[in-house]
## 1
Amino acid sequence: MSVFNNTDLAAFKNVWVFCEQRQGKLMPTDFELISEGRRLADELGVKLCGLLLGDKVEGLAAELAGYGADEIIVCDHPLLKDYTTDAYASVICQVVEELKPEVVLIGATNIGRDLGPRCAARLHTGLCADCTHLDVDVDIYKDFLREASTLPEARIATMNTAKVLGKDHDVSRDLKMTRPAFGGHLMASIICPRFRPAMATVRPGVMKKAAFDASRKFEIVKPNFTLAESDIAVKVLETVKAAKQLVDLTGAEIVVSVGRGISKDVDKGIALAQELADVLGGVLGGSRAVIDSGWLSADHQVGQTGKTVHPKIYIALGISGAIQHKAGMQDSECIIAVNKNDAAPIFEIADYGIVGDLFKVAPMMIEQFKAFKAEK
Amino acid sequence: MKAIVCVKQVPDTSGKVAVNPDGTLDRASMATIINPDDKSAIEAALRLKDATGCKVVAVTMGPPPAEGMLRELIAMGADEGVLISGREFGGSDTFATSQIIAAGIKAIGFDAEDIIFCGRQAIDGDTAQVGPQIAEKLGLPQISYVADLKVEDGVVTCKRLLEDGYMTLQTKTPCLLTCVKELNDPRYMSVSGVVDCYSKPMTVLDYNALKDDPLIEVDTIGLKGSPTNILTSFTPPLKGAGTMFDGTDKETIPTVIAKLHAKHLI
């Protein structure tokens, strides 16, 4: 079957980043993706474009450009004020068909993961979900595998080509999209060799934000599109921001997390962890068991199905270290684990493992860290 | 009125996971379960049945043993099972999978007042893509991350979770919803359901049953119909073992603090 995007792949150029805004405010992950997209665009030798949809959002363009975008594609329309799957998918697909990007990156937020699959299905292209690493350049990709995988060198050396429908395919211009699967037990690198654009949703908090450069020059592009009220089958009745302050785990420099080990006195366990976090200027997190038991709200969850964090210091109190949890915190700079069980898997990745009862160890930590801070 | 529930049988990734030497998952050695988010989907459909008496059809795509899972769903209260199964469907990515399941749903038939329920995502792939892609292939409105649901006279009102709050969304049937665990507490199989589950209808849709649907072409299903390819899969290396301390030793915490300080972490 021949469709518009699998006959002349060379007609597709440039890396696009969908820049999500809520209530006229850009999402932090937009800057991470623009920064990462800059690197990919340079590897491909093409332009990096931010794709901005909303109502009167042109003013946000300069902020995006400062992180590395050459061009901001602005689609302004009153019906794009609030996110709706129908309006956003319609406009994005029209613009993609018109301007033909080679790569489209979308933040894997709840909205991005609603929008991405709908667009990929309509455009007839591949979408890789919730990526944690992206590459174009094969040599850089191979170096990544040498560091991040247990693959033998002989296998890594073959990565210039892939078997695609029985034929050898040169992957040098394909986006290599790497993501965890099976709850983090396995990693997989995915390509989209026969269709364009290659699309990826990218996990928030994983890509590093570049330095902001206010002097960067950029262009604004305003493509044509059509959009009518009748295109939108799902109406937004209201958007409610959670009243309480949600924890910002992904940006935290220090995270103190609790696991099932607090079960004998949940309130005290959480209070200790919170106090330790406060002493260190950190944020409180929890394992899936803690969230599933209702001991902490879902915005505290660290792990494959929760948030990915890479703080300077990660303190795990009473967390056994299921793969699910490790997937969300193993890239922390320094991991301190406290667990009664000296065989707990968390100790396999801990820089400092403390075998002991968290109800005894945590108070000592609070006291000693306080003393240390007072000395300084 | 009818509720169609899309369900996936998945390896239980929360338990022991076995990986083959070539880096693929040793599925044979792992227990299979009903995907957790899909249980919220089936429960939502069963509550609609409790309230309206509508029919609940559980659909899955998978190998023949997945029929056992459909029987479990019937024992929970579903009225019939549909197993989409065929060698031709193997190797499908989310795009190709949604082509096939959409064709299966068309074969079952859906009417103006029907609702299709899916789980938000499956724990083996964690993509959350198949639900929205089925909706696209069927030309239906979708609401994902549904945490609260009201259905009245063909009007569907949902609370859709966001990271920093929620949206209240409204649409009309027919539509597709993807459900999260916050939506409900799934029920267990009932004793009478278990007794009766083998007497309820079970349909198998194979390639021949679906091949006349325009969604089903050689290059839109299976490996050939999948826009994505796996370049490689691999297991991450274990981080080198760290230093272990005794939590009852008074010197432990000061030593750790000194090390953190030496590394300029604090």
Note: Chain A has a mean pLDDT of 94.
## 2
Amino acid sequence: MHPAFSVVFLTTLIGVGQGLFLAIFTGQSYSAVELLPSEDSIQFYAMGSMLALAFLFAGLIASLFHLGHPERAWRAATKWRTSWLSREVIILPLVMFLVCLYSLMHYFGWDTMLFTSKTGAHLQLTLIVGGLGLIATLALFLCTGMIYAAIKFLQEWATPLTVINYLLLGSASGFVLATAFSSYNAPGLVKFYGIWATIITLAALLTRSAALLRNARIKYKSSMQTAIGIRHNQIQQKSMGFMGGSVNTRDFFHHQSRLFMKSIKWVFMLLTFFLPLLFLWSGIEQANSSTLILAFLIQYAGLIMERWFFFAQANHPQNLYYQSL
Amino acid sequence: MTQLALVIDLNVCVGCHACVISCKEWNTSGPAGTMCDDNPYGADPTGTFFNRVQTYEIGEFPYTETVHFPKSCLHCEDPPCVPVCPTGASYKRENDGIVLVDYDKCIGCRYCSWACPYGVREIDEHEKVMKKCTLCVDRIYDESLPKAERKPACVMACPTSARLFGDVHDPQSEVSIAIREEGGYALMPEWGTRPSNHYLPRRKMRKHIHKDELVRADNPLKKEQRDHAEPIDAPTLDDSTSW
């Protein structure tokens, strides 16, 4: 496929936003059961989730550039019964609403204690709203992943690993950002987020590698023979039906060399997984916020390449009809 | 239930592109608006077409055959492009099975073109909506046309009648009989899309002519050109006539 940068930015930006919200909410959940000290509502929970909202909003703006008619985008909410894209269109604003509400409730102190146990564990109203946000965030990861995994003849995408990778890569970038964010606003949580960011990044390394291995040995179901229905081993296209280009030659192929495709794979593996882990470790050891920010920026750059590669690697069967690509 | 479709005879198609031109002409002048056409005479022409004719060479030289392969929307019975559409702009008509795009609802997200394994959906880069073959829906029901002309423009244009049009759900229709009796097949059956359009395969048309068939024994022309092989003084049958 031809990777559209609008979609590359959409999926990576909302991934960061979702991951950061998950991280902030995880922090509050831990403090609710007294595993972590409670942080300042305004400085940490409100600001952190507002930052997550900013990323979600940036992703939403990026998505509009993908549409031919953004003014009709509201129509995309109608076919949620059959279309994962429609479901994403509904859930993304819902996540944004819940994250915004969560942030505002913390900012203005619209919170009440609902329940306190003898051991000190407590349940607040913000925790309930955050819990709903958590469910919506996970549902959004599912929708985003399923948009790609549901197209069965794009065999590189049609695997549960696609959904898992969206979840883990988004969460990893969010937790790395949370580590950097907490180094400014809640230094006590840097180690907590750093460890989680490392664990999730390592898990994503495993599942992304699994997807790369799977795709390296994929056996395509469609062939020239099934495409035109002629059972002969030697079929050569002499004419695509036009002398210039068409949407078919532009939209479904990355037009990059084999060497480029091979090298970008290693570059994104380095930038998304290995370098951020190194910078995380050094940033936490030296308590250096800028190193942690750098870890996030490097990982985000890696994720852009990862997402570019994810799209470019998918081999659309329609390319069989356009052999001179 | 009716399922309108095309049956394309690869044995007959000569690759003249008349169907492509006729399709573009009809549909670009239709009520749905023009189909874009950039640099038509320039270095890098591009534009929206509902129908393309491709050419393939089968076999190894010198034992090759050329196959011209017209390609347009197959109006699948289970179209993968329809359920993925987030707006419902892409739909399959209940009454005749034509897969259409509502250009007023389409947001131009291209998801349906990703979900079509055949690559027959093309976004109109000027109008920014997805376009595809409509089976000339604005023509086949037009009662102001004579009945014989209520067919898609490509079918009307084909000089070799390589394109048949009809209801593939009616077992006695021309298209159903052609599919049944000439070995009609669907493209990429592995994805379960059940295309309605079918292709008739190339058929070997071999005729063995024996030597004695080269000369017609009872050729009436020969009566005037009798070979006077016998000598003039040879005995005749009745002793009175001679050659």
Note: Chain A touches chain B through 56 residues (CB under 8 Å).
